[in-house]
Amino acid sequence: MAIEIEEPSAGLSRVAVSETHGEDSPYFAGWKAYDEDPYDESKNPSGVIQMGLAENQVSFDLLEEYLEQHSEAANWGNGISGFRENALFQDYHGLKSFRKAMASFMEQIRGGRAKFDPDRVVLTAGATAANELLTFILADPGDALLVPTPYYPGFDRDLRWRTGVKIVPVHCNSSNNFQITPQALEAAYNRAEAMNIKVRGLLITNPSNPLGAAIDRPVLEEILNFITQKNIHLVSDEIYSGSVFSSSEFVSIAEILEAQNYKNSERVHIVYSLSKDLGLPGFRVGTIYSYNDKVVTTARRMSSFSLVSSQTQHLLASMLSDTKFTENYIKTNRERLRKRYESIIEGLRNAGIECLKGNAGLFCWMNLSPLLENPTREGELTLWNSILHEVKLNISPGSSCHCSEPGWFRVCFANMNQQTLEVALKRIHDFMEQTKIKKNLL
Amino acid sequence: MKLLSRKTTCNSHGQDSSYFLGWQEYEKNAYDEVLNPTGIIQMGLAENQLSFDLLESWLAKNPEAVGFKRDGESIFREMALFQDYHGLPIFKNALAEFMAEIRGNKVRFDPNKLVLTAGATSANETLMFCLAEPGEAFLLPTPYYPGFDRDLKWRTGVEIVPIQCSSSNSFQITESALEKAYRLAQKRKLKVKGVLITNPSNPLGTTMNLIELNLLISFVAAKGIHLISDEIYSGTVFNSPGFISITEALMDRNLHGSEVSNRVHIVYSLSKDLGLPGFRVGAIYSNNDTVVAAATKMSSFGLVSSQTQYLLSAMLSDKNFTSNYATENQKRLKKRHDMLVSGLQEAGIGCLKSNAGLFCWVDMRHLLSSKTFGAEKELWKKMLYQVGLNISPGSSCHCTEPGWFRVCFANMSEETLNHSMQRIKDFVDSTTDVVSRRHRLVVRNSRRRSSHDRDSER
User: Fold this and answer.
1) Which residue of B has its CA nearest to A306?
2) Cα separations (Å) of A230 from A103, A145, A187, A267, B313?
3) Predicted local confidence at residue A438, as pLDDT
4) Nearest chain B CA: its distance from A304 CA (Å)
5) What are the residue boundaries of the Aminotransferase class I/classII large domain, all occurrences included (chain B) (predicted)?
């Protein structure tokens, strides 16, 4: 909602002063607490452990090894023209070699069950840019996108802030493991209609953030039916597709479209990024893959505002076209994430905490509703505060993800080493013991 | 129901203009000294290709900058994870100092007021989002960079109202032109939020003098609006009178830290001065905390790759390198500029006197068959298809007078530039007879018409 500016001389736009960037939510407040008192094994063993950051730090050694063995990826080799050509390259089509490598990497992640055409790959500076760009293309100011809850807090900014587009939530709950149902979709659509808001599309994250679970094939098929019937778009944000613990458990919307010979596919667009699977958020590499020619052309032109550095395209083209490297990376990364996931689930279970059954991502969806004094958002935030300030763990409260049921928390496990994870689990264990004791005394 | 947004179907991306058509033709039949000597020479691309050897030799001596190392230690992990929209501190520090150096260290820049963006394209659009509502307007002096039509208007919904400049005073901005533009906006019921200037100018290749800068400052102060100074060519000034930045002009009037200085914002980029357009390094500098805060958050949509920030922080912190680069680069630009000017002179073609940029603003009015934009288009096509040179017609830059063209000189070898000059001379020689014959015909005919008709011929 915009704030009215009092003195006219400042003369800034409503967008500039609005709070739609969402930076005042607890999601960011926890981050600040961590910044002020960050955990360090030796220097600050009682500091706040950051478990609110969905980063993948488990496979850097593989990347570092690759760079050691292939220095020409980073330094353009000995050829004079290499640097010059690369430094001048600002074509919004993107480096062809990189698009090819990206398309092939996306195919490998899906076990070859879907094909990707490099000419449909549009490059953007991260998935953040990709999602905003798609919103500009698919909707007009005042229109809406349906987004299933709980969802990534950043969407409030990415999809709404500068675009003027609204989000209408599709409520999901624990009664069926937060799966998206046709009823929930219809209900959301009808709610929008009742408010005279035009729905332009549905945006799903698959695998889901914050649930850490891939969407089932039958649900995806229902979703496709829904969007076709309503004649709206489908954006499938698949940035965690390479973080599925077992390849066979992830079904991409691309596979379903291929299976039906791409019928009605001009409404479907996929977002991908190397920030999660490769652990390279700093390099700003995102992509839009659309089955709609007009969207591809427009997205390409709009990507001028957020191009990927040609230096980075060059590095990653080299890395991702090395299929021996990528095959090994995907397999190893998956395995390590699975192990981390299992150790956190076990640790939490020993502390008496259950999580949603997950099979992907860099986090788990933890159920602390039994601990709530009040089964409300306020109750959840009170609990979150004690966990942040007493247990010294920064985890993300479900309310910041717009979850309609209080008491759920997203806990990241891949942005720290194993020892730190164990320290965190011990703190949780102790906290749960104390809570039990307190409850028994009352 | 219409499936895509209005933005998809409108033409504000500007991709159907001649600016892009010429590019397309060039791509189909690109000149190559050996492989395609009759192909089209690209003179419509404002790139700086003159000083890559300096960059390459620096890279050869500083392998750590690309090898993700710092003092022998690997920092790959740190860089790979760094996505803080405040930007890499060592890079912002180096960039702030580099910008000061370009201005002869007469001004200082605070790294905390610098916002990094993926190129100046992103910076300009971001400032529009921060300073104007959809339907509001910014005033821009003509002629201006064709890309502004897309960058400032497309997704933001902001309008551009031109400040008409003319050759009668070398296209300088005048008070009456500013007032006229403001009134035009009012007539169109558009609220003016600011003025955007490019200094040094694209396509003119000239720097603004203190009179113009003061005029602008007084104007935006009086109207209570913003001033954006796009200074991406500030490092390409190769001749006197030298570059006066907007910051200097404000300081000169003791307005540093004043209310109006809170509404002055600078855009910079490394695409022109360093010749690195592919690396997407742009910046917004503002004294206005709210603008810095909002722009910083918005930069999430177009961050600079941390890999690139690291490389350039090392390069720009090397003061020996940057000072040597600046001097050498300017020397080379001046040489090229002079080559183009004298080559054109030999063909009887004049240029606007310029001291900066990667191009000249060339006066081809005398080659037009009539003083119309139709004739300009005709001439442009002849230059493209007959002479084989892709140059940018003034109309694509919204110039109000037909017959001016922007011709780039820094994106090719010396041999290619010489060759293009030869082609122009040949073309002019071959048409001179035709033109002078036609001219005699026109003069004879005009004597028969009444003076009333002659006046209408503008």
Assistant:
1) B302
2) 30, 13, 13, 11, 51
3) 82
4) 7
5) 41-424
Please enumerate in sequence order all residues whose Cβ is within 8 A of that of B342, keeping only pairs 6 or more positions apart, or say none: none
- Which residue among A323, A338, A367 closes a domain? A323
**CATH-assigned architecture of domain B6-50+332-441:** Alpha-Beta Complex (3.90)
Residues of B in contact with A89 (CB under 8 A): 278
Interface check for A80 against chain B (CB to CB < 8 A): the answer is yes
Secondary element (H or E) of residue B146? none
* ipTM (interface predicted TM): 0.94
pLDDT of residue A158: 97
Cα–Cα dist A82/A89, whole Å: 11
Known catalytic residue at A237? yes
The reported pTM is 0.93
User: Contacts of residue B134 in chain A, CB cutoff 8 Å?
Assistant: 141
Asked if B301 is an interface residue toward chain A (Cβ–Cβ < 8 A), one would say: yes
Domain of A42? 26-61+327-437
Alpha helices in A260-401 (DSSP H): 293-302, 310-320, 323-350, 377-389
A276 is catalytic: yes
Note whether residue A339 is domain-resident. yes
Answer whether residue A2 is part of any domain.
Answer: no
- Fold for B53-322, please state it: Aspartate Aminotransferase; domain 2 (3.40.640)
| pLDDT digits 0-9 by tens, A155-175 | 999 999 999 999 999 999 999
For residues A194 and A308, membership in a common domain is answered with yes
A112: phi then psi, degrees, rounded to nearest 5: 75, 10
Q: Which among B47, B118, B151 has CB closest to A125?
A: B118
In this complex, the residue of A9, A57, A284 whose CB is nearest that of residue B303 is A284
Q: Does A86 touch chain B (CB under 8 A)?
A: yes
DSSP A154-167: THHHHHHTTT--EE
